[in-house]
Automatic annotation (TrEMBL):
Keywords: Cell outer membrane, Ion transport, Lipoprotein, Membrane, Palmitate, Polysaccharide transport, Porin, Signal, Sugar transport, Transmembrane, Transmembrane beta strand, Transport
Topological category with respect to the lipid bilayer: Multi-pass membrane protein
Outer-membrane lipoprotein Wza C-terminal domain boundaries: 334-356
Main location: membrane
Places the protein is found: Cell outer membrane
Family: Belongs to the BexD/CtrA/VexA family.
Keyword Transport: yes
Presence of the UniProt keyword Nucleus in the record: no
Name under which the protein is recorded: Polysaccharide biosynthesis/export family protein
Cleavable signal peptide: 1-22
């Protein structure tokens, strides 16, 4: 046997185990015990089986009781609101700027101090009154100058009570709280959720000094529809972006990539499907893993969930297993794939040895 052949054989014997255990290359199924669970204190390994899935229960998503309990009172006039006051049969009072003008030109804005001025009435405090309370007040004062006045009042511009929006919305303009109560669903519908970048499961409603994290996808999943939540003036709505909510699919799949998702969760079947599925030429069906929790290994063991995806029936299990943000889905290579890669890694090394041998022969000559 030549020097080159012996060197290649020794390198193959020494290098093959290292290739099998190289990071990102292979996880031995022998690490699983018969019960399907193994734990060394740092990594806990679990087989995805019907028995395991039957013990996994998804928690029911519920709305906070204090949000559901809030019911808006009658609208209270505030600073910045513009009122349109009608005195029937008295256009000189109703439309002093002329009937041809827009309604806003004849409107009465509530001043920064909460008051407004009206002819024959003078300055009255409007802030904090309901529409009916202010109408009664104006009727009483105008009746001193107009016999049996018929007074009507409406708000033509709401400028005092607003809801602010931020994040993955198409429109983030402030929305007004009006005489018709504003619900969360109406506000989100008017703002229009960004269908590509929004994370529906991470929505945050801030009221005062308290934040409510609402999973909008979970609350409206399937045939269930979340009950209306009424908004208050000053509420802040934030729809987070999903660019930090990713699942990483690597290994022997057709399109390894980071997958973003805007919903509560994604099943393992969906994750593999969006990555193009297992590579039929290089993937090992028995070696599908979901790696979770490696960032907190000091606090609790990381989890590795194993799926034997060799049979079509295994995809029924995968469709019931939810992956989470930060998970790594890894598909291991088949034995022949590992060997081919090892040989390919050896080829540059063999060329070096071959060149060295040729150089040695030339020097000997």
């Amino acid at each position: 046997m030549s020097k080159f052949s012996r060197a290649l054989a020794v390198a193959a014997i020494v290098g093959l185990p290292g290739c099998m255990l190289a990071p990102g290359q292979y996880i031995s199924p022998s690490q699983f015990v018969r019960s399907g669970v193994a734990d060394d204190g740092h990594i806990k390994m679990v087989s995805i089986t019907p028995e395991f899935l039957s013990t996994e229960h998804r928690s029911q998503i519920a709305l906070p009781a204090e949000l559901m309990a809030y019911q808006p009172d009658s609208y209270r006039i505030g600073r910045g609101d513009t009122l349109y006051i009608t005195i029937w049969d008295h256009p000189e009072l109703t439309s002093p700027a002329g009937t041809q003008q827009q309604a806003a030109a004849n409107g009465r804005m509530v001043r920064p101090d909460g008051t407004l001025f009206y002819p024959y009435v003078g300055v009255v405090r409007a802030e904090g009154l309901t529409i009916e309370e202010l109408r009664t007040l104006l009727t009483d004062k105008i009746s001193r100058f107009v016999e049996s006045p018929q007074v009507d009042l409406s708000i033509i511009d709401y400028g005092s009570q607003r809801v602010t929006l931020q994040g993955a919305f198409v429109k983030t303009d402030r929305q007004s709280i009006t005489a018709t109560p504003l619900t969360l669903a109406q506000a989100i519908g008017a703002a229009t959720v960004d269908p590509i970048r929004a994370d529906l499961s991470g929505f945050v409603l801030t009221r005062g000094d308290k934040q409510y994290h609402l999973d909008l996808d979970g609350l409206n999943r399937g045939e269930s529809v979340a009950k209306d939540i009424y908004l208050k003036a000053g509420d802040h709505l934030y729809m987070p972006y999903n660019d930090r909510k990713e699942v990483y699919v690597v290994g022997e799949v057709m399109r390894p990539q980071a997958l973003t998702f805007k919903t509560t969760d994604m099943t393992l079947t969906q994750a593999l499907g969006r990555a193009g599925g297992l590579n039929p030429l290089t993937a090992k069906g028995e070696a599908v893993y979901v790696i979770r929790g490696v960032e907190d290994m000091r606090k609790e063991p990381a989890m590795i969930y194993h799926l034997n995806a060799k049979s079509p029936a295994s995809y029924a299990l995968a469709s019931q297993f939810p992956v989470r943000a930060g998970d790594v889905v890894f598909v291991g290579p088949a034995g022949v794939t590992r060997w081919n890669r090892f040989v390919n890694q050896l080829l540059p090394f063999s060329n070096i040895i071959n060149n060295a041998a040729n150089t040695d022969n030339l020097l000997d000559k």
